[in-house]
Design goal:
Oligomer: single chain
Number of helices: 24
Number of strands: 28
Helix content: 25-40%
Largest sheet: 10 strands, mixed
Strand order of the largest sheet: 6-13-7-8-12-9-11-10-14-15
Strand content: 15-25%
Shape: globular
Distance between the termini: 35 Å
Structural class: alpha/beta
Length: 772
């Protein structure tokens, strides 16, 4: 299922091609672009051409793969049809052109040495989970790769994380430091072997080795599994980063990891030994199982079974677990019958960038882990684990990184070479040219200077790596965004124009492009914060338009939001401000929110003073206020915590009745948030938090649906797109996807990039092609 995320189509024009190829013998040259390097494409071409009896050659270039064929046109026609319809499993063909050339009289078919081309269309594949063939070798006592942690072939293993230049050859990867032994070299040169031109090929004789060390880098004598069973925390070097690992069934070990990592509440990801173990603890549909075992091996958000006895320390207050399966041989070696589940969280101080080198690891993780599991294969490109959930039978991204980056996303319009710098909190940039945008991995919050440095380095690396020289830069409209400030400096350095686009309009364009749409449609963008065209805070916006022009046609009714970022961390504060704005009665607010006693004087002032608050239509702050009414009155320790906890409560109450809501028609449709008053009254009457949470979700979904129906009638639009972090809420998007088609309206959600700010850069790219 993993490759469904990026399924592409090409115009084939078979009829004219078949007629021409049926005429006579001759020679043709085929140019193929897409993910065609690092996936066994040249060996596949070699075997197919040899089988059919054609002569010529195949070569990797910085433009993709070029094939020269000589022989009967019937054979060439068969070759083209078979290659196009059945490429290697991990390949993705994006461009396929055939040209007549003069025959040169080749005697055989062979693989030529790679070369640099004038143009660049190649896509390096992402890192891919261990295939079944390699896993069988790893577990086979009689195989020379038995127990070897770096076993791989053309169908699996590291790719992007070890590549520093194109074309994808061993000399351009960190595996160039390891000269192949005689046996590996023979495999590499054998067209019948699945390691034929497998660039990371290695074995215990010639490849990298796993080394255990202490915190100061001194070799450590011990067994990894024994250490984990003892409750130790280990730092383990993986494909694109380090992980911190501990026994997930040892509550003390999990608590120790939380204390050391200073990650008090935010959920940990888990790695399970196998599917059987996952089924013991999680609800698992066939589609979710398919995602778990896909070559990309993302983390999947799964509902935890009530019978699961896993530590509450893993995902406090939530009913879902982030679950992945092993994706390298090293991972498989961590488990046995007595050690079936590990916490596997990114090995960094919370908020800092991923660690790449042993030097960094020893310096920064010495207080977090007792033992380090390291090796000498260098990580070139950092990549966190991707996170997805199942929605409408497919994967729905929360974070897009390992397994998917640097796959491109096809654009419905031709794009001038562009660099879009994305946002600040979930920073992801994008380079685009032609009809493709390549989004980077996730870099985190740019207010952290280390993340900013990694992000800036990434922008320069991608530009060189992809050989894209941007002709313009695009950034967010927000005057205080760090990414926008960087874009201004970089555009000045390069002497390029800088285009600024409004945050939510970029979201709107992103989900349009994600679905291949290029027409006027309705859109709903809901999130926490975005700087509006009018200088206020936007966050629940209705749009109509396309890439050439987007009209804001509705929004959540504006409300006073306290200035500064502090209110985002305190849902109780937001609830107190909104209830006072509704009621104007401190005593009544105090009865509804008794925990607000100390902050109520501030909330009263902020509710009425323009100097202390800013006009806002943020959907995220409404969710925060509702979460406080449901009992989440403490400090939020990570982004979205209040909303996620409230969603977990709501899952236990299906088909809840919505509160009464109002929608004010006019030139600008306004969605009232005054239903919070009824919700607060509901709480005062003793309604339990799960019912409050369920009714809130039902209200939000029903109100959005009604607003969309009215706008659909106004603009004669039967398509609506959804983007923004609010639509990571599975309850809300499921209700929208179910209700709108019954009204004749087709809903479109993200498919290839995250609905949060991780997909923002794609929309920035698209708005640079037209209006803003």
């Amino acid at each position: 299922m993993g490759l469904k995320f990026c399924c592409l189509s090409i115009e084939r024009r078979w009829d004219a091609l078949v007629v021409r190829l049926a005429q006579a013998d001759g020679a043709v040259e085929i140019q193929i672009t897409g993910i065609v390097q690092g996936v066994g494409f040249r060996p596949h071409v070699y075997k197919l051409a040899t089988l059919i009896g054609l002569k010529g050659w195949v070569i990797n270039t910085t433009a993709g793969v070029t094939v020269r064929l000589e022989g009967p046109m019937a054979g060439t026609r068969r070759f083209i049809e078979e290659l196009f319809n059945a490429p290697p499993p991990l390949a993705r063909i994006e461009g396929f052109t055939v040209s007549d050339v003069q025959p040169e009289g080749f005697a055989t078919f062979f693989i030529r040495e790679s070369r640099i081309a004038h143009n660049t269309e190649v896509s390096i594949p992402p890192d891919i989970g261990t295939c079944l063939d390699c896993l069988c070798e790893y577990n086979d006592l009689s195989d020379r790769r038995y127990g070897y942690a770096f076993t791989n072939c053309v169908n699996c293993g590291p790719r992007f994380s070890i590549t520093h230049a194109i074309p994808y050859d061993r000399k351009n990867t960190s595996m160039y430091a390891f000269a192949m032994c005689e046996k590996c070299d023979a495999e590499y040169a054998d067209p019948k072997n699945r390691r034929f031109h497998a660039e990371p090929n290695a074995c215990p004789v010639c490849g990298p080795q796993v080394i255990l060390t202490s915190r100061d880098g001194v070799p450590f004598a011990g067994d990894i599994r024994t250490l984990l069973k003892e409750g130790r925390v280990l730092a383990i070097k993986g494909i694109g980063s380090y992980h911190l690992a501990c026994n997930a069934q040892n509550n003390s070990a999990v608590q120790l990891l939380r204390l050391r990592k200073r990650r008090h509440i935010k959920p940990f990801a888990l790695m399970f030994r196998d599917l059987e173990t996952v089924r013991l603890h999680c609800e698992l549909s066939p589609e979710e199982e398919e995602l778990l075992v896909s070559p990309e091996r993302p983390i999947i958000l799964l509902r935890q079974k009530s019978s699961s006895m896993l530590s509450m320390e893993i995902a406090p207050g939530l009913d879902t677990l982030g679950v992945m399966l092993p994706y390298t041989p090293l991972h498989y070696g961590l488990f046995d019958e007595d050690l079936p589940i590990l916490v596997m969280t990114s090995a960094n101080i919370s908020g800092d960038p991923l660690i790449l080198t042993e030097k960094e690891a020893y310096a920064e993780l010495g207080t977090l882990a007792e033992v380090f599991v390291v090796h000498k294969r260098k990580i070139i490109n950092r990549a966190d684990d991707s996170v997805v959930m199942l929605f409408r039978g497919e994967g729905y991204f929360v974070r897009r990184a390992r397994g998917y980056v640097p796959q491109g996303v096809m654009s419905p319009r031709t794009v001038t070479p562009t660099l879009a710098v994305g946002g600040d909190k979930k920073s992801v940039f994008a380079y685009a040219h032609g009809k493709k945008a390549i989004l980077s991995q996730y870099f985190g919050d740019l207010s952290n200077l280390k993340n900013l440095k990694a992000y800036e380095d990434g922008i320069r690396f991608f530009g060189d790596f992809l050989r894209i020289a941007p002709q313009r830069l695009v950034c967010d409209l927000h005057p205080d965004y760090i990414s926008a400030s960087y874009a201004e400096r970089y555009a000045k350095e390069l002497g390029l124009p800088l285009i600024k686009v409004q945050h939510h309009k970029a979201h709107f364009a992103s989900v349009m492009a994600d679905n291949g749409l290029d027409e006027k449609v309705l859109g709903v963008v809901c999130d926490g914060t975005g700087y509006g065209d009018d200088g206020t805070i936007w966050g629940c916006e209705f749009f109509y338009g396309d890439y050439d022009g987007i009209e804001r046609v509705g929004s959540l009714a504006p409300f006073p939001q306290p200035r500064g970022d502090g209110v985002v961390r305190y849902p109780l504060h937001m609830a107190a401000v909104l209830l006072y704005a509704l009621w104007g009665n401190k005593g009544r607010v105090l009865i509804a929110l008794p925990e607000s006693n100390k902050l109520l004087p501030f909330a009263e002032a902020q509710a009425v003073s323009k100097a202390l608050s800013i006009v806002s239509s943020s959907c995220g702050r409404i969710f925060d206020a509702a979460a406080a009414l449901c009992g989440f009155t403490g400090r939020a320790t990570y982004e979205g915590e209040a909303a996620m906890r409230m969603e977990a409560l709501a899952h236990s109450v299906p088909d809840a009745e919505p509160y009464r809501y109002d929608i004010m028609d006019g030139d600008m449709l306004r969605l009232s948030w005054q239903f919070l008053s009824e919700m607060a009254e509901d709480k005062l009457h003793g309604t339990e938090p799960p019912v409050l949470a369920a009714r809130f979700h039902s209200t939000i979904s029903a109100a959005l649906c009604e607003a969309i129906k009215r706008l659909s009638a106004r603009y004669s639009a039967d398509k609506v797109v959804f983007s923004g972090g609010t639509f990571q809420n599975r309850l809300v998007i499921s209700m929208l996807a179910k209700r709108l088609p019954t009204a004749g309206i087709a809903p479109y959600f993200h498919r290839q990039v995250p609905t949060n700010d991780g997909g923002l850069a794609l929309g920035q790219v698209m708005l640079a092609t037209g209006g803003k």
